[in-house]
């Protein structure tokens, strides 16, 4: 028998004896490891001689740059900040939709909240005011990038990158012509028509949230005119 095979056979017999000590007499693993070390027995699984001869050398440790290991979207991981976005301040937890609008109005420097935004929010039964506040904060960041000229594309294209997946660039023709009054708001010394909006959920009226606004290109702000129920359009006439 070749020497390597003989040694492997001896190792297996010694290992079997030590394992029987463990099973039959309750000898602890630590004691078995000590005995194995004293006997020169390797407790790791036996690798056939042929495989040991053919095994390549251990590769060098995998050293990756931070960019290689970072998630593609830093916002998806708690505590990870996208490099192009500064840390966001903490905000109070809103108790209802009206409270969410009040908090946003106090902190969002690129949004103007019209009186009807507060009125509609007070009437809303939408059960997730945290979602409303998060959407308004995201809209403020989008408006800030647009106002500063750093957005680099249309709002409707950039909106999903800011978490505004329900962004709609305008209202339907039916809404604009048949239900015009629902979308008209007083803004400063003139009337405006709301158009772009954010759609959240479908189903019963109290489960639906719609946020409508007007983009003021002259003042470079977004005027929020409604936060609440779905305004009438081709699919909703009540």
Topology:
Blueprint (H helix, E strand, L loop, with lengths): L2 H23 L3 H11 L9 H6 L11 H4 L27 H11 L3 E3 L1 H9 L5 H20 L6 H4 L8 E2 L4 H6 L1 H4 E4 L2 E4 L3 E4 L8 E8 L4 E8 L10
Helix pairs in contact: 1-2, 5-6, 5-7
Features of the shown structure:
238 residues, alpha+beta, 2 domains, five-stranded mixed beta sheet, two-stranded antiparallel ribbon, 10 helices, elongated
Describe this structure in words.
This protein is of the alpha+beta class. The protein has helices spanning 3-25, 29-39, 49-54, 66-69, 97-107, 115-123, 129-148, 155-158, 173-178, 180-183; strands at residues 111-113, 167-168, 184-187, 190-193, 197-200, 209-216, 221-228. It has 2 domains: 3-54, no CATH class; 69-228, no CATH class. The protein has a 5-stranded mixed sheet. A two-stranded antiparallel sheet has the order 3-4. The chain starts with a helix and ends in a 10-residue tail after the last strand. The model is unreliable at 34-87 (pLDDT under 50).
């Amino acid at each position: 028998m070749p020497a390597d095979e003989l040694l492997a056979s001896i190792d297996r017999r010694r290992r079997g004896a030590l394992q029987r000590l463990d099973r039959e007499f309750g000898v602890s693993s630590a004691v078995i490891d000590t005995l194995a070390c004293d006997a020169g027995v390797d407790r790791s699984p036996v690798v056939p001689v042929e495989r040991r001869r053919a095994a390549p050398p251990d590769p060098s440790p995998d050293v990756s740059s931070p960019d290689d290991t970072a998630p593609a979207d830093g916002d998806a991981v708690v505590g990870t900040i996208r490099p192009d976005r500064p840390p966001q301040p903490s905000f109070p937890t809103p108790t209802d939709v009206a409270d969410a609008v009040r908090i946003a109005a106090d902190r969002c420097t690129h949004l103007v909240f019209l009186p009807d935004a507060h009125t509609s929010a007070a009437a809303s039964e939408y059960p997730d005011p945290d979602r409303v506040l998060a959407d308004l904060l995201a809209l403020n960041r989008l408006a800030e990038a647009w106002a500063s000229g750093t957005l680099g594309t249309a709002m409707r294209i950039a909106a999903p990158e800011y978490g505004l997946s329900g962004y709609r660039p305008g209202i339907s023709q039916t809404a604009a012509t048949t239900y015009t009054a629902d979308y008209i708001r007083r803004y400063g010394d003139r009337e405006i028509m709301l158009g772009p909006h954010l759609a959240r959920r479908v189903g019963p009226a109290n489960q639906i949230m719609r946020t409508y606004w007007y983009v003021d290109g002259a003042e470079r702000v977004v005027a929020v005119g409604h936060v609440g129920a779905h305004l009438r359009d081709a699919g909703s006439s009540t």
